[in-house]
Amino acid sequence: MRLLSCIDKILYRRSIRRYKKTPVPEGVKAKILEAGRLAPSAANRQPWHFIICDDAASKEKLSKGRWSGFIKDSAFAIIGVSLPFDDTSRKFGVIDTTIALQNMVLAAEVQGVGTCWVGDYREDEVKKEFGIPAEATVVCIVTFGLPDEKPGSPRKSKPLAQMVHVEKW
Ligand SMILES: Cc1cc2nc3c(=O)[nH]c(=O)nc-3n(C[C@H](O)[C@H](O)[C@H](O)COP(=O)(O)O)c2cc1C
Prior knowledge:
This protein is of the alpha+beta class. It is 36% helix and 16% strand.
C-alpha cells in the first residue's frame, strides 16, 4: 500500500458497528492477528493474550451492555487480555496490550475490515465467562467485520491547539 493511502486509512478510520454477514477471509484475519503478535511492548515482554470470539454464543455473551449490542453482529470479536508476570509487564502490560489491539485495528482497516473498540463490559463477568485468570486484566474488546455502514456525521475531534504543548505545558 502506498504511504499516502495508508495514512489516509488511519486519518479517516471510523468505528463500524454494522457489519455484513459475509465472513472475514481467513488470510485477512491471520494478518490482523499477526499485527497484534508483532506489536511493540516494554522490554519485549509481550504480556498480551487474545481471545477470538467467532461463535454466535460467545459474541452473544459479550453483547449484553447498553453500548455493546452490536458485538453479536460482528464477524468476530477479540478480547484483549494482559497477563503480567514481572515488574515490567505489571507496569506496562495494559499499555502493551492496547498497542497490540490498535495494531490489529489498523491492520483490519487497511484490509477493508471495520472495527470498533468496546469498553462496555464487566471485567468480572468476562473473566468468569471466558475462563480468564484472576491475575489478568481484561484490557478491552474489539469487534471486526466487513462494514455495512459509512458513518456520515463527522467525528467531533478537538483541535490540535487544545492538546499540543510546545516544549512545556
Ligand atoms: C477504549 C474505548 C472504548 C470504547 N467503547 C465503546 C463502546 O462500549 N461502545 C461503542 O459503541 N463504542 C465504543 N468506543 C468507540 C468510540 O465511541 C469511538 O472510537 C469514538 O466515538 C470516536 O469515533 P470514531 O472511532 O468513529 O472515530 C470505544 C472506543 C475506545 C477507544
